[in-house]
Write a structure and sequence with these properties.
Largest sheet: none
Mean pLDDT: 87
Number of helices: 10
Number of strands: 0
Structural class: mainly alpha
Helix content: over 70%
């Protein structure tokens, strides 16, 4: 059910989760007031009850703050890894120009093919929680070509060492992305603790002695709305490569649109007369 909901827009998802939380909280309050009308905290017990309620609320607030910050940091880490993965591909493409022309062309073609497969098949596949077989095969072809290449001179040996390092970095960031997509950051047991703690906070509010039913409903609604909003943020960020808050593929897409074409342009030597005057001055100086 959650896998379907996170594919909706953030607004619809938030409304659905928050609305469900409010519905459960209000339904419980109405049942308690109807069937347990005399079961409430009396005035002389209010001080002690407040201590218990504050303890539960404080513990839940600390837990929620810790979890939200952890999920957000992990989400940002995954976004940074995507940028690093794109950077490794860009470096591979540029460094391959240090090899002989035949190897350069073949490696650059494999890099472009892998990037295209990740952008147009890998990212959509991760929305469904699976790995793209097409992108996986493209990666294996690229990896095999790089690691099996035999340098022919001292210059190529230096370039080849850089290529292998970048290839290993690319493999690492790709593997981290696949592992994170297959395994949500928060384990089920932690979700259970949060749900039970939230339920306890809501239920304890049922037994406060509030004669005005509308006020009681309003306070319970406000409490459940806040919890629902927090649940929405946690669930969306817990799936960084799925749903409506999927990490952008732009760093990799930008390689196809700008980085690779610009790398080819820099291979050409432009006549000095076609350069900007200030640029010509820098070159002459």
């Amino acid at each position: 059910m959650v896998n379907f909901l996170i594919t909706l827009s953030p607004l619809v998802f938030t409304l659905a989760i928050t609305g469900t939380t409010v519905l459960i909280a209000i339904s419980g309050l109405l049942l308690v007031r109807k069937y347990l009308p005399l079961f409430f905290i009396v005035t002389e017990d209010t001080t002690v009850a407040n201590i218990f309620i504050r303890q539960i609320s404080t513990l839940l607030a600390v837990l929620l703050a810790f979890v939200v910050i952890s999920i957000w940091r992990n989400y940002e880490e995954q976004r940074e890894n995507t940028g690093k993965e794109a950077s490794s591909l860009g470096n591979l493409y540029r460094d391959s120009r240090g090899l002989k022309p035949e190897a350069e062309i073949e490696i650059q073609q494999l890099i472009t093919k892998y990037t295209r497969d990740v952008v147009y098949d890998g990212w959509p596949a991760m929305l469904q929680g699976r790995e793209s077989r097409i992108a996986w095969l493209s990666f294996n072809q690229l990896y095999g070509k790089v690691v099996r290449y035999s340098p022919e001179n001292a210059r190529e040996e230096i370039v080849y060492a850089h290529l292998v390092d970048e290839m290993n970095d690319l493999a690492m960031y790709r593997r981290l992305r696949m592992i994170r997509n297959a395994n949500p950051f928060m384990p089920d047991v932690l979700w259970a603790v949060i749900y039970i703690g939230s339920l306890l906070v809501i239920v304890t509010g049922y037994f406060l002695k509030i004669s005005n039913k509308k006020v009681h409903l309003l306070l319970t609604t406000i409490n459940s709305v806040m919890l629902g909003l927090i649940f929405s943020v946690m669930l969306l960020l817990n799936f960084p490569y799925r749903g409506s808050l999927q990490i952008s593929v732009y760093p990799l897409e930008n390689l196809l649109k700008d980085v690779y074409p610009m790398a080819k342009i820099t291979d050409a030597t432009l006549p000095l007369d076609t350069l900007d005057p200030f640029r010509k001055y820098e070159l002459i100086r």
